[in-house]
Amino acid sequence: MLKVAVASENKMVCGHFGHCETFEVFDTKEGRIIDHSSVPNPGHRPGFLPNFLHEMGVNTIISGGMGGGAVDIFNEHNIEVILGAQGKSEEAVKAYLAGSLASTGSICHEHAHHDECGE
Predict the structure, then answer these.
(1) pLDDT in tens, 41-62
(2) How many distinct helices (H) and strands (E) make up the chain?
(3) PANTHER family per the record (predicted)?
């Protein structure tokens, strides 16, 4: 079983991982979604959310953008990071499971909202 979390806002992929409204968490098996839950974001603090999702058993995180620090922590936990996603959270997971969602490597750096990207 694979557990995929999507940083979401109104069931859509959120552009800023740390400031999402919820994490839509999908349990998948053999390339299909078998269960779904919506977990409220417990709050953005440096380094907290990647560990929070790791403790939930998440294997993959999908987001629009994310700071390099968060990416590093996910990598330490062997959690796959898919960045640059857009659209409906569930559709992003289906595309990921089908092998058609690739990360653009869109790590937030110096743009107008750098403080919102977990730097």
Answers:
(1) 999 888 899 999 999 999 999 9
(2) 3, 8
(3) DINITROGENASE IRON-MOLYBDENUM COFACTOR PROTEIN-RELATED, IRON-MOLYBDENUM PROTEIN
Record the tokens describing residue 119, joined without a space: 């730097």
- Helix crossing, 48-55 with 68-76: angle to 10°? 30
The chain-wide mean pLDDT, for the chain, equals: 89
Q: What is the pTM of this model?
A: 0.88
Q: Which residue has the tokens 């869109």?
A: 106
| CA distance linking residue 35 with residue 20, whole number of Å | 21
Q: What secondary structure does DSSP assign to 46-73, as a single string?
A: TTHHHHHHHHTT--EEEES-EEHHHHHH
Contact in structure between 23 and 7 (CB atoms under 8 Å): yes
Task: Tell me the helix, strand and coil percentages in the chain, rounded to 5.
Answer: 25, 35, 40
Tokens 């653009």 found at: 104
